[in-house]
């Protein structure tokens, strides 16, 4: 029985390895190997695959940001109104916030024509936060501590709901 030939990592020439990239068959060491559903990939193949995933164009950032900003401003006003109801407002805010996140996500997804990019999703999430700033400032200057708390709850729940909806992250499989 013959011994396997000694392979050296393509990125670290002094490191012996038995691993190969499942896509390009390049020898890679454990430091370079990135686990994927189809086996281990080299960093170069992962980057080339990521380029296929990123389909966002410049106007998507602008359109998605503006839509998220406006809708988040509307949701912030609604949260303020619901929060003023009283004790039941706490429950309504917790129910409305993720719903608002999903509505904003689906609206922006429609406007950006389902284009995707991690930076685009982050831009939209930041726009949601910025959309709530006017209401936050109003609550702050009027001294409404509960209004600030409701806005904080809204942002704390809506932004992750929006981001997971846009990026397709699956929490439960």
Written overview of the protein:
This protein is mostly helical. It folds into two domains: 7-52, no CATH class; 55-167, no CATH class. It has six helices and four strands. It has helices at residues 43-53, 58-83, 87-111, 118-131, 133-141, 145-167; strands at 7-8, 16-17, 34-36, 39-41. The strands form two sheets. Strands 1-2 form a two-stranded antiparallel ribbon. Helix 2 (58-83) packs antiparallel against helix 3 and helix 5 (133-141) packs antiparallel against helix 6 (145-167).
Short description:
With 173 residues, this protein is mainly alpha-helical. It contains six helices and four strands.
**Which structural class do the helices and strands define?**
mainly alpha
Fraction of residues in β-strands? 5-15%
Q: Kindly state the number of beta strands.
A: 4
Global shape? elongated
How far do the termini sit from each other?
Answer: 44 Å
- Which bin fits the share of residues in helices? 55-70%
Q: Which strands sit side by side, in order, in the main sheet?
A: 1-2
Provide the succession of SSEs: EEEEHHHHHH
Main pleated sheet: 2 strands, antiparallel
Whole-number radius of gyration? Answer: 23 Å
Number of domains: 2
* Count of individual helical segments: 6
| Uncertain ranges | none
């Amino acid at each position: 029985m013959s011994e396997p030939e000694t392979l050296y990592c393509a990125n670290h020439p002094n490191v012996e390895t038995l691993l190969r990239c499942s896509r390009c068959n390049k020898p890679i060491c454990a430091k370079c190997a990135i686990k994927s559903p189809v086996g281990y990939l080299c960093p170069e193949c992962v980057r080339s695959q990521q380029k296929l995933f990123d389909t966002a164009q410049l106007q998507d950032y602008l359109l998605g940001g503006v839509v998220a900003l406006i809708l988040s401003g509307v949701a912030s006003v609604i949260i303020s109104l619901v929060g003023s109801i009283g004790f039941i407002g706490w429950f309504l805010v917790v129910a409305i916030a993720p719903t608002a996140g999903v509505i904003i996500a689906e609206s922006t997804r429609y406007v950006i024509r389902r284009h995707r990019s991690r930076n685009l999703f982050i831009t939209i999430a930041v726009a949601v936060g910025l959309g709530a700033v006017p209401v936050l400032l109003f609550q702050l200057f009027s001294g409404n501590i509960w209004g600030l708390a409701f806005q904080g709850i809204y942002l704390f729940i809506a932004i992750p709901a929006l981001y997971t909806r846009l990026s397709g992250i699956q929490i439960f499989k």
